[in-house]
Amino acid sequence: MRQAATSRPLPAAELDERSGMLATVLATVDALVLAMDAEGRIQVFNGACERVSGYRFDEVRGRYAWDVVLRPADVEPVKGVFRRLSAGQRSTYENVWVAKDGTERLIAWSNAVQSDPDGRVRFVVATGIDVTELRQTERALAENERRYRDQLTQAAKLEAIGRLAGGVAHDFNNLLTVILGCAGALCHELPAGHPLREEAEEIAAAGGEAARLTRQLLEFARQRPVQPVPVVLNHTVEEMTGVLARLLGDELQLATALAPDLGRVVADPTSLRQVILNLVVNARDAMAGGAGTISIQTENAELGARDVPGVPAGRYALLSVRDTGCGMSAETRSHLFEPFFTTKPEGCGTGLGLATVFGAVKQAGGHVLVESAEGEGACFRIYLPLA
Ligand SMILES: Nc1ncnc2c1ncn2[C@@H]1O[C@H](COP(=O)(O)OP(=O)(O)O)[C@@H](O)[C@H]1O
Ligand SMILES: [Mg+2]
Known about the structure:
This protein is α+β, with helices and mostly antiparallel strands and 387 residues long. It is 48% helix and 23% strand.
């Protein structure tokens, strides 16, 4: 500007043309351009400002910028920025503009102070871009990234627990064979009515229960020989609807929505039945005491690399089991698939249901995901790669 003052004055026609062009640029540029005097009163409010805020320049001219478009909570911080600006620095910050119709946009600003030769602030030029969508996308990406990492950690942790549990269960099973054998022999030898007969029977019963738990644990640790064959999940679900309906009783309904064109997966049918059974029983327990519907759905899913956190790109059969029960806290969610994790009262839960589900799904090369919040039901999704 100062330089312009010392150079040759422009002819009037050229001046007109230049300022006309500047006005057009200001009106059409996508960036918000806002100029304020030293006190913060609006002097320039370009087309982008009008478009974002819904105010016309003549409505806001001369008003304090913070009285027009800011949320009350942002007024003091922005005044603070303004005071620091006046001290002569360039600065950047973000704030929300509330438009005339109440819509909110997040704007990233860069401010520059224009001062007199003697250093007094003349005006402040703020240039802003609307970063609402950009920041939303960034947040979604970060959240995706976080969930992806969680899934990986979870999988690694379960892998380790599975190996450990499998080893222990194996040794334990050998000991149980001895215990059960001896208890059986005792029951056989002790005549009916013998004072120790009852104790011997209790040993046999407890041993039997322990063996059942161990079998489940071995299942989880993927030690049971499985026989993967091509399966259409719909058939597995249909086979089970009778059993499931009986499990659910009168209050709870089972709804199925099965994709007619569902592709085949390769999996062990017994394991698949266990998966469905465990998920439905858990759904029932979560809805205990209330009426409602548990839905089982199947569909084909074609996933890109990052469509679903933790699930690689590919073609899958997706099995979902959804309930409208009590849901679960983030804390519960983080332990869900661990063997022996249960929130149910003693005697009601073994904590092996979902561990078994996890084992079976991994065995079939699949992935299991859960979506749930406290009081908002739960949805378990199982992705099995199509054959
Ligand atoms: N559909 C569900 N809704 C709410 N919580 C669930 C659901 N499924 C599982 N859970 C939680 O996960 C825990 C572990 O489930 P699971 O491994 O099947 O063991 P168990 O059913 O024996 O407790 C449950 O105790 C419960 O807290
Ligand atoms: Mg269970």
